[in-house]
């Protein structure tokens, strides 16, 4: 699932490439992916890209109309990639093509800027199709965005506010993944953060000592900011491989921990799993399945 670091890099890349570009094509093969359209999707054609940004794990295109009048107010195209959706980018002037992808083709957008043409393809390669599009007048009209917690890389998000999120008897991994508490962290980076912070993924958040809370907070900031810097400037089709290559424990079941050499273990849940190092995180304890992936 795309998370904060690669969505940040993707948004920055698209903002650099598409700011000022005019939308010339918006092809939806079916209405399945379009979950909300306060504005007809066809009416976005002819608008220009004011900016491309990120809200949590959502990608946000701000589109402005050239003409004056009622339709001159901005409109926003919001993309939720869900578990297995992604974006492919083609620069026609440089004769580069979007990587071919099998799976569900959700939408194709064409852009033009001073005779320079670009294609953006949205597709979902998973068994269950979750990629969703929203066309709204304000990003907060999207329910998932309206409910987002603070962004962990926001300079205003400090240790005191973070500490208040860790007062419930909920597994700490579940707290990190809960978008209503902290925006942008998913299964992969919660594994990576907890491994680097040397904390058990199933420890109850309320049981952490103050020094452990501070270590978790600092590690979270460092891991996410470091990954975002590492991915900066990469093409969209390079981001997923870069993320996979950077993982130290997530997706590394059976491999040696890069810190201590112990075997990375896995706890499987319905539809998901977590990875951890017993030596680094659980004092050698081998965790058993404990019900839901975010519960108590």
Automatic annotation (TrEMBL):
Write down the Gene3D superfamilies for this protein, in alphabetical order. Answer: 1.10.8.50, MutM-like, N-terminal (3.20.190.10)
Keyword set, alphabetical order: DNA damage, DNA repair, DNA-binding, Glycosidase, Hydrolase, Lyase, Metal-binding, Multifunctional enzyme, Zinc, Zinc-finger
Enzymatic reactions? Hydrolysis of DNA containing ring-opened 7-methylguanine residues, releasing 2,6-diamino-4-hydroxy-5-(N-methyl)formamidopyrimidine
Domain of life from the UniProt record: Bacteria
* The keyword Ribonucleoprotein appears for this protein: no
User: Which residue numbers delimit the FPG-type domain?
Assistant: 248-282
The secretion signal range is none
Q: Where is the Formamidopyrimidine-DNA glycosylase catalytic domain?
A: 2-112
Please give the name of this protein.
Formamidopyrimidine-DNA glycosylase
């Amino acid at each position: 699932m795309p998370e904060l670091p690669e969505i940040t890099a993707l948004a920055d890349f698209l903002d650099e490439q598409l700011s000022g570009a005019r939308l010339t094509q918006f092809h939806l093969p079916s209405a399945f992916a379009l979950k909300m359209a306060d504005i007809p999707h066809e009416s976005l054609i002819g608008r220009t890209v004011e900016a491309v940004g990120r809200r949590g794990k959502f990608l946000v295109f701000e589109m402005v109309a050239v003409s004056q009048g009622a339709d001159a107010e901005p409109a926003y195209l919001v993309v939720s990639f869900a578990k297995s959706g992604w974006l492919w980018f083609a620069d026609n002037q440089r004769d580069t093509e979007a990587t071919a992808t099998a799976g569900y083709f959700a939408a194709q957008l064409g852009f033009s800027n001073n005779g320079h043409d670009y294609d953006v393809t949205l597709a979902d390669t998973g068994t269950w199709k979750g990629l969703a599009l929203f066309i709204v007048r304000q990003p907060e009209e999207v329910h998932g965005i309206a409910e987002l917690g603070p962004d962990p890389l926001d300079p205003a998000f400090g240790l005191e506010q973070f500490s208040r999120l860790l007062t419930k008897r909920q597994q700490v991994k579940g707290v990190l993944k809960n978008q209503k508490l902290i925006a942008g962290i998913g299964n992969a980076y919660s594994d990576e953060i907890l491994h680097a912070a040397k904390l058990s993924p199933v420890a109850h958040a309320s049981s952490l000592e103050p020094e452990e809370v501070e270590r978790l907070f600092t590690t979270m900031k460092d891991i996410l900011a470091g990954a975002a810097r590492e991915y900066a400037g990469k093409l969209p089709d390079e981001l997923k491989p870069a993320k996979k290559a950077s993982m130290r424990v997530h997706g590394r079941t059976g491999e040696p921990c890069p810190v201590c050499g112990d075997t990375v273990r896995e706890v499987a849940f319905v539809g998901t799993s977590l990875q951890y190092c017993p030596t680094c995180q659980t004092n050698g304890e081998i965790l058993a399945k404990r019900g839901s992936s975010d519960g108590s």
